[in-house]
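Page 47, continued from p. 46.
Same chain as before, 729 aa.
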Amino acid sequence: MRPPLPTDTIGYNDQEFSNSNGPKFHGAATAWVAGYTGKSSIIGIVDTGIFQNNSEFAGRISSDSTDIIASRGSVEGEGTHGSEVAMVAAAANDGAGTVGIAYDATILSIRADTPGTCASGECTFGDLSASIDYAVDHGATVINLSLGGSSPSSAEIAAIRRASEAGVVVVIAAGNDGTSRPDPFPRGIGGQGFSNVIIAGAVDYTGAIASFSNRARGSESIFLSALGKDVNVYLAGSEWEIDPGYQGAGFYKISGTSFSAPQIAAAVALIHQAFPSLTGAEIVDLLLSTAQDVGTPGTDSVYGRGILDIHSAFQPQGTTTLAQKGTASLPLNDTTAVGSPAMGDALATASINTLVLDKYRRAYRFDAGQSMRGATLVPRLNDAVGGETRFVSTANDSAAIAYTIDASNPAAVMRGVPRQLMLTTEQAESARVLAARIALKLAPETQLGFAYAERPDGLVMQMQGQDRPAFLIARSAGSEDGTIHLPNMALALRRQFGPWGLTLAGESGVVMSGNGQWLVHEATGGRTRDPMRSFSLTADRQWGELQASLGFDWMQEDRTVLGARFHEAFGGGGSNTLFIDASAGWQIAPGWSVYGALRNGWTFAETSSVIENGSVIYSRAWSVDLQKEGLFSRQDRIALRVAQPLRVESGGLKLSLPIAYSYDTESATFGTIPLSLAPDGREIMGELAWRGPLWSGWASASIYYRREPGHYQAMPDDQGVAMRWSTRF
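Result:
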């Protein structure tokens, strides 16, 4: 499969590109669009010389180009082979003819053919060690050896070793005999274990090994295939007339591993320009490890490591991390953050442009906001009526006990009320106690309460003697903390001081992530559970028909920030939230009451390697109730509630993230990137609820409406009707 063509932002996809099958086949445009064309890279071509006046090379033939045979001293040469190799690697992007893969690279031409051999049509090459050393000494990024021959001499092996030590990549053509192994020369070089050498085999445009190409057997680990059959080039000019196949200006198809090698060499030039900190060995490893796997899966004896894939080579490889030391890995397909219900759609349009490094220390732009997820909508209707539960309670002047059990199991139905909330293991497994509450009067002015799997606010209201309307869907502002919160245990202690009551409460539980967090190291995405605690102090008083309270609630989250969970790469800090709660209830007329509650919160995110000091979130919830008692009987009531669930009103996180990277110093420059957690949506909920006796039991009915549910501006409004009936048995 050919690499995808990137969006054309530079005008590369013209007729010249269409004429050039090599760049298309290997995905070179991915590098071009990113701004990498081989500029500042030097391709050393040890061959038959080069036609210096060819317009395809204008201004890009190094002045250090030479004839290694000093007595001859002619860079031009007798054959066309060297010029054709150079065109495949680096023909100009000039809108005419064909374009090379590294069209801005400098060509260091080193003529090394044995004098007189090219005139006969069969160029041969003698000792290449001097040519290799010359290329290294004159700054070559990569050396292309589109030539075969007998086993390498010790001098040639020593020259390749010196190139390796200098970080210069060497690409050698495999040969055109159609054998199962490369020619003796590349095979002999490859057998030395150098980390800077690639042997180039040839494939056709379908990706099949070319019939003439030598295969990879014995050199599989460093063998890379590239287009080598019918490679398009445009030949024009009198210099080409020395080629017997030249019949005038036009497009020619040339074949051989000699033309596979320069495409690989050109890919080296692109990568060197883009990532100058990479060593030659790392560039070789990158090209080999990102090759498109063909033939037998994995490295095989025909294609070696596969087919050159420049598009893939330019993608991040291995484990990615934020461009700084000491941080956790940040895979690009991980979920970077999961918001909480209080944040609604705030993360839907988040843009956090930063830099990550791959395993080769290459820097990539990464918008961490693209992989942030908002919380799923809270299923309030299902929570209200969807479960099969049974509520059991008893009370006297000294104690009140209540608990909820799962009634979906017939064995869970227990007759009578236990004398104490102490279940055997068998009973617990059968009954599956979902929640429980105990309130004890220790002294006339002192009460103590415990709750299991319940939050303390209901326990506190019970101990205060508050009688608030019961709603199925809408919640009071004081019970909203903007998280998906699973309480474990709660404790409350209340003391009456004359007309004033003072209640101290505490809770431990867990915060669940608002959505599944998808991570590379997990098989599936799941919701996380992180510890939390809260402590509150509330004062209340009654003035005739008016009852009011004022409280402070301190919530500590070990790992989350107001219910939002951020990736470990962001530091994994928690947060502290201060809530100030005010509520009041007033009986305005016989049977008529109004209630109001307001909660304001300030969340202070803990600092980390990424989260800066001063990351503060301001949130608010409110609710207003109107209740009429005795609508149809003295025991029923109907109430209307209008409420806003806790919503982030302003603020967010200040993130210290890498915004630039220097390959010279291999260090990042950091900047502060704000992440607003205030949503565009604002949920306003209305509920009309009735509760009263019906058919020897109790019934509840509710009509509700939610505008922009979950604080998602684009979410359709939610409305519905809920009914519930229960009885003792």
